Amino acid sequence: MDLRCYIVVELKNTNFKPEYIGQLSFYITAVNKTLRREYDNETIGLLLCKEKDKLSVEWALEGTSNPIGVSSYKIEKYISKDILEKLPTEEDINLHIDVRN
């Protein structure tokens, strides 16, 4: 069986926040308005966060009609500790970003 739909995946490097559902809903709507055709099934959203609180996710999804799934991930399972220790921290990266307009 073919799924025949678009899937919007958003990866967050932070814990789940309810506002992420609104942002992902915006992206789903953009795909529906610009790419989806009448023969496509509904666009699906997938939000991946470092951690999630089940109750917060349930409440955040209560107000949306878009098909959205929320899951957490553990990068430590797939990347060795040696490599993880060599990756820059969020603070390291922010030191090199120019935030001026």
What does this structure look like?
It is a single chain. This protein has 101 residues and is of the alpha/beta class. The mean pLDDT is 88. The N and C termini lie far apart (49 Å). The protein contains four helices and three strands. Helix 2 links the parallel strand 2 (44-49) and strand 3. The chain is elongated. It has a domain at 7-75. The longest helix has 16 residues, at 19-34. The chain has helices at 19-34, 54-62, 81-86, 90-94, and strands at 7-11, 44-49, 68-72.
- Return residue spans where pLDDT drops below 50 for at least 5 consecutive residues: none
Radius of gyration: 17 Å
Shape: elongated
Order of helices and strands: EHEHEHH
Report the sheet-strand fraction: 15-25%
Using DSSP, what is the number of strands? 3
Sheet with the most strands, sense and barrel status? 3 strands, parallel
Q: Kindly name the structural category.
A: alpha/beta
Q: How confident is the prediction overall: mean pLDDT?
A: 88
**Order of the strands making up the biggest sheet:** 1-2-3
Helix share bin: 25-40%
Our measurement of the CA-to-CA distance between the termini, rounded to an integer number of angstroms, reads: 49 Å
Alpha plus pi helix count? 4
Give the key terms.
elongated, 101 residues, alpha/beta, 3-stranded parallel sheet, 3 strands
Give a brief rundown of this model:
The protein is built from four helices and three strands, in the order E-H-E-H-E-H-H. The protein has a domain at 7-75.
SSE layout and pairings?
Elements: E1 7-11, H1 19-34, E2 44-49, H2 54-62, E3 68-72, H3 81-86, H4 90-94
Parallel strand pairs: 1-2, 2-3
